[in-house]
Amino acid sequence: MGMLLSGRGLIASLIFFLLKFSTAVDIPLSVQQVPTIIKQSKVQVAFPFDEYFQIECEAKGNPEPTFSWSKDDKPFDLSDPRIIVSNNSGTFRIPNEGHISHFQGKYRCFASNKLGIAMSEEMEFIVPNVPKFPKEKIDPLEVEEGDPIVLPCNPPKGLPPLHIYWMNIELEHIEQDERVYMSQKGDLYFANVEEKDSRNDYCCFAAFPRLRTIVQKMPMKLTVNSLKHANDSSSSTEIGSKANSIKQRKPRLLLPSPESGSESSVTILKGDTLLLECFAEGLPTPQVDWNKMGGDLPKGRETKENYGKTLKIENVSYRDKGNYRCTANNFLGSAIHDFHVIVEEPPRWTKKPQSGVYSTGSSGILLCESEGEPEPAIKWRVNGFPIERNPFSGDVISPREISFTNVQPNHTAVYQCEASNVHGTILANANVDVVDVRPLIQTADEENYATVVGYSAFLHCEFFASPEAIVSWQKVEEAKPLEGRRYHFHENGTLQISETTEEDAGSYSCWVENAKGKTAVTANLDIRNATKLRVSPKNPRVPRSHTLELHCESKCDSHLKYSLKLSWSKDGEAFEINGTEDGRIIIDGANLTISNVTVEDQGVYSCSAHTALDSTAAMTQVAVLDVPEPPENLHLSERQNRSVRLTWEAGDDHNSNISEYIIEFEGNREEPGRWEELTRVQGEETTVMLSLAPYVRYQFRVIAVNEVGRSQPSQPSDHHETPPAAPDKNPQNIRVQASQPKEMIIKWEPLKPMEQNGPGLEYRVTWKPQGAPVEWEEETVTNHTLRVMTSAVYAPYDVQVQAINHLGSGPEPQSVILYSGEDYPDAAPVIHGVDVINSTLVKVTWSTIPMERVHGHLKGYQVNWWKTKSLLDGRTYPKEVNILRFSGQRNYGMVPSLDAFSEFHLTVLAYNSKGAGPESEPYIFHTPEGVPEKPTFLKVIKVDKDTATLSWGLPKKLNGNLTGYLLQYQIINDTYEIGELNDINITTPSKPSWRLSNLSATTKYKFYLRACTSKGCGKPITEESSTLGEGKYAGLYDDISTQGWFIGLMCAIALLTLMLLTVCFVKRNKGGKYSVKEKEDLHPDPEVQSVKDETFGEYSDSDEKPLKGSLRSLNRDMQATESADSLVDYGEGDHGLFSEDGSFIGAYAGSKEKGSVESNGSSTAPFPLRA
């Protein structure tokens, strides 16, 4: 293009280039560069309670920067011994050691190296003075009632903010109202004083919270004199009224002060809060109003405080400037003051100069624009010096920009732009680094990356290059640049691969090349499987009050399992890790359990999985089932005598479809308030035509039903009353109650109140003999029973019952056949015979009686029998009748459970509903012998290594003549195999025991014993026992342990031992020892013993054992409860239980339990043998 670009086009191009390049480049510290300040202090206040005060300045650069400071635009010496300088930075500390006021001022930090100098903004170090009110004598003030007055505060200067309070000496606040006001400066104004304002302790307090200080002005005394313009006879009210009338006056402004005139100017910074105050004296107390001249007060940001005396506008903007007027008025006049509000602003950046990296020969531009009120002045500096001292040929410098072309290495510098007005100064550093280097890749070589299938992968290749460089990526094994829509190359060198697949795994090379050379690094990419979740059950429906259990099943790549974390949320709100404090909601990793589910628990539950590389979520919709809400808005229409239409609106079904509606009614005149079911309709219906009964004042309600249950009933409908009518039905279930002969007590089910159809319900009863050509007999009753006398016993009658009321009769009644009352049968059956089936069962046959002799409905026959005599011993028995009934018309019966070998008497009789008839003649029969019951007991009373003696008892019932016993036995050692069964026939019935021999030693046997008669043997009784091993006295204890004298002796020894123990404890508690060391110790000389007790007290030598320690051995010996003479006889027992003088020496028995002999028989118990 041959034409020259315009100046504006050139500037725009330069701006775009500089911004684009500066945002893309961050110079590594390995490359030479000018200093950059990275940390600096702002305002620092030297609070008296701090240990030290730190003023910070840190910078980076290559070469490493050095630091210097200025204070109040003069060089500041960092070598001052009163400060502490930090290494490798410009930061220094000022210890709080009493000389800090010397350091108050405005500081600026300079960081420099051979390439340039960076400078900080000004930092102010403030050393506040301790504020104090001056010591002064304040003259008392005296005014007349109704006059105005101002109590000055004049607070001392100090570190803001300042809070002022007026209080009395008791630290009670002075009450402020429309008449009394404290200004922003702290003075207390009275529009007109009253007598109650008199006090001698008006105190002004100034609080400086940042200094943690409150100071107090000396108390002021104010005396208000009351006016006395009325005579003494006037009342106080009249006096006050007259006095006030003298002092009444129109308003006069005290704030702003009268010296300022009727208008004043107020300057406020943008964003601050504007406070305008206006206070007038006068009587009556003036009211203050505010308005903005030529506009409205800003809505939402303005408030009137202190009874309207203060106008407050927050967050002031330029549109709030203008004139504001306050007007103070009472009925005597008004006073005004206009405030001219000026809104100004400190400087702020609109375009801040940006640092940039340039290559030799390139062009650049620095922009510096700011706004403020007044308009800020802009000054440029280079390396901290005015730019006029460092001009570069070809550079274009203006207040708002610096442009340069054909940049050379000596352009490298730090440019400063400073914008200032009366409200402050702002400073910005812009680095200009002219660099020409081969690309430097800052990302490490062979960096490993991983992502999940379907996600994006980011492979980094951060670099620095000047001049500009070109970046290209390629897969190592393919050796050609990557192309395609899935690959995106970011300006910082990062490669983004979208929608990754497993084929994307591998090694990639990043190449960066510029005019100075090229560099490369390799990146490795691994592809992981995506995390998958499934929540079960899917969309569950849980009844209210039940328990909801959700499980989150996760499937995760093995490399990501270490970082897998599961969490639960409901409707987007996360649950606490452990659920709720009350334990209703419990979260255990993949499981979520909610007990006692409520309707509020329904919603969308989400299980989220987070790993180091991906995240996913699975959701399930939980529906909480509950009974429906009651139907609403019941409405009656189409009203008829016998019907009405009921319509309603369905309530909330709570996630379970309504299956049906139950319509209930109330209208029972006898039971008002009782609701009964009328009908049911399908859940899709919300209207039904109801069939009604006459003479009922109906009210309806509806209940909704779903799978959970029934809703509460709806609100009742309006009433609907049907007119009366004749009965629609007659009584049902007509029957005869049990009655006397030739009598019928007729009963029926009465009509229900809803079936009566009208008032005056009665029942018309008619009857006649069945089939007889006679007139019906008739009787009308109001209850539901009637007694009728008949001419015959148990004769059939046709009976009818019809309902009638005042409006007519019910339908024609149907006849039922009823029988008159029964009488007892008057004939007895004849027994044909008794056939003996076995020893306990017989069959009886008899002849039936004629039906005319039954006198009623035959229900059956009854057999009575009783035992009269035992055929075994001839014993007779008193008569105890047993009864067995056989229903229906039959002539035989089986009589069970008889005693064998006995004589019985038996009779038969007929019975009907009235009762039983006469008995037949007794029939005598005998039962034959049977097998006996099992013996009452079986015991093994003695065992040895190869013998066992058994004893038994007779059966309770012999059931015949006993002929003997059958004894059987077999080996049953603790295995699943059992030995051969051996039989022994005992033919002596009177023998109660038997000794078995030739048994195996140390073997367990099972014994069976049966009693026998001529009919056979009965059921067996069993017992188990073991034979003994080798031993001289193996069977000895069996003979002894079963003897009564031996048991008694053991009991006596146990009792005697217990008595001796009691005596020992009594003596020990009295202070002595009871030992059994030697015989003479048991009978000591009383005098010697007394000396011992007094000298040694509780001493016991090593040979003695106190009773407490002997208790264990005593108890062990007590188990072997042997007597001296019994064990001496056998030579094995410890016969030394007592010494010859009768003292107990069991404490030295020293015996050991060698073993014990056990028996599994029911008659033996373990007995320890001691050697």
From TrEMBL:
<keyword id="KW-0272">Extracellular matrix</keyword>
<feature type="signal peptide">
    <location>
        <begin position="1"/>
        <end position="24"/>
    </location>
</feature>
<dbReference type="GO" id="GO:0098632">
    <property type="term" value="F:cell-cell adhesion mediator activity"/>
</dbReference>
<keyword id="KW-0130">Cell adhesion</keyword>
<keyword id="KW-0217">Developmental protein</keyword>
<dbReference type="GO" id="GO:0007411">
    <property type="term" value="P:axon guidance"/>
</dbReference>
<keyword id="KW-0221">Differentiation</keyword>
<dbReference type="GO" id="GO:0030424">
    <property type="term" value="C:axon"/>
</dbReference>
<keyword id="KW-1015">Disulfide bond</keyword>
<keyword id="KW-0524">Neurogenesis</keyword>
<comment type="similarity">
    <text>Belongs to the immunoglobulin superfamily. L1/neurofascin/NgCAM family.</text>
</comment>
<feature type="domain" description="Fibronectin type-III">
    <location>
        <begin position="730"/>
        <end position="823"/>
    </location>
</feature>
<feature type="region of interest" description="Disordered">
    <location>
        <begin position="709"/>
        <end position="733"/>
    </location>
</feature>
<feature type="domain" description="Ig-like">
    <location>
        <begin position="439"/>
        <end position="526"/>
    </location>
</feature>
<feature type="compositionally biased region" description="Polar residues">
    <location>
        <begin position="228"/>
        <end position="246"/>
    </location>
</feature>
<dbReference type="InterPro" id="IPR036179">
    <property type="entry name" value="Ig-like_dom_sf"/>
</dbReference>
<dbReference type="InterPro" id="IPR007110">
    <property type="entry name" value="Ig-like_dom"/>
</dbReference>
<keyword id="KW-0393">Immunoglobulin domain</keyword>
<feature type="domain" description="Ig-like">
    <location>
        <begin position="251"/>
        <end position="344"/>
    </location>
</feature>
<keyword id="KW-0472">Membrane</keyword>
<keyword id="KW-1133">Transmembrane helix</keyword>
<keyword id="KW-0677">Repeat</keyword>
<feature type="domain" description="Ig-like">
    <location>
        <begin position="347"/>
        <end position="433"/>
    </location>
</feature>
<feature type="compositionally biased region" description="Basic and acidic residues">
    <location>
        <begin position="1077"/>
        <end position="1095"/>
    </location>
</feature>
<keyword id="KW-0964">Secreted</keyword>
<feature type="compositionally biased region" description="Low complexity">
    <location>
        <begin position="253"/>
        <end position="265"/>
    </location>
</feature>
<dbReference type="InterPro" id="IPR026966">
    <property type="entry name" value="Neurofascin/L1/NrCAM_C"/>
</dbReference>
<keyword id="KW-1003">Cell membrane</keyword>
<keyword id="KW-0325">Glycoprotein</keyword>
<feature type="domain" description="Ig-like">
    <location>
        <begin position="35"/>
        <end position="124"/>
    </location>
</feature>
<keyword id="KW-0732">Signal</keyword>
<dbReference type="InterPro" id="IPR003598">
    <property type="entry name" value="Ig_sub2"/>
</dbReference>
<feature type="domain" description="Ig-like">
    <location>
        <begin position="531"/>
        <end position="620"/>
    </location>
</feature>
<dbReference type="Pfam" id="PF13927">
    <property type="entry name" value="Ig_3"/>
</dbReference>
<dbReference type="GO" id="GO:0007420">
    <property type="term" value="P:brain development"/>
</dbReference>
<dbReference type="Pfam" id="PF13882">
    <property type="entry name" value="Bravo_FIGEY"/>
</dbReference>
<comment type="subunit">
    <text>May interact with L1CAM. May interact with ITGB1/ITGA1 heterodimer and ITGB1/ITGA2 heterodimer as well as with ANK3.</text>
</comment>
<dbReference type="InterPro" id="IPR036116">
    <property type="entry name" value="FN3_sf"/>
</dbReference>
<dbReference type="InterPro" id="IPR003961">
    <property type="entry name" value="FN3_dom"/>
</dbReference>
<feature type="region of interest" description="Disordered">
    <location>
        <begin position="1151"/>
        <end position="1171"/>
    </location>
</feature>
<dbReference type="InterPro" id="IPR003599">
    <property type="entry name" value="Ig_sub"/>
</dbReference>
<feature type="transmembrane region" description="Helical">
    <location>
        <begin position="1045"/>
        <end position="1066"/>
    </location>
</feature>
